[in-house]
Amino acid sequence: MKIQGRMFIWLSVFILAVAVVYGVWSKEPVGTTALFLAFGLSVMIGFYLAFTARRMDALAQDNKEADVADEAGEVGFFAPHSWQPFSLGLGGALAFLAIAIGWWLLYFSLPLILVGLWGWVFEFYRGENQNQ
Question: Among positive and negative, which fits the CA dihedral 93, 95, 101, 107?
């Protein structure tokens, strides 16, 4: 995490320099504001990563002599056959399409989103996967 923290801090320095140069040359307030906001976001992320890295043990990515296998292990548990992300994706696509076509399309997308969200949260509380 130390490497990522340093990368974001250096990225924030670069974005700050670009924001100042862009603001002086263009005198355009919207782009300048966006660059300063990107600088602030990059500083927040970099500070968080650097602060967290000080309180954690060194990871394999922080060791220059580490191998790829040093960071191997279980990543987490993922549902092997879930249809809920498809329902959420379809409902989300229809919801964003409602902005372009008409707000009436939200009446069809909201039930898909709610069913997908409800099913995904309570997926392992019922059925054959109840005890996983």
Answer: positive
Identify the three-state secondary structure at position 73.
coil
- Can you read off the two tokens belonging to residue 39? 């600088």
Let me know: does 62 contact 3? Beta carbons within 8 Å: yes
In three-state secondary structure terms, 66 is coil
Helix 29-55 to helix 2-26 angle (10° resolution) is 170
Helix (H) or strand (E) holding 52: helix 29-55
In tens, the pLDDT along 63-88 reads: 778 887 777 777 777 777 888 999 99
Mean pLDDT confidence for 86-106: 94
Helix (H, G, I), strand (E, B) or coil at 132: coil
CA distance 67 to 60: 8
pTM over 0.70: no
Residue 64, helix vs strand vs coil: coil
pLDDT band at 99 (very low <50, low <70, confident <90, very high): very high
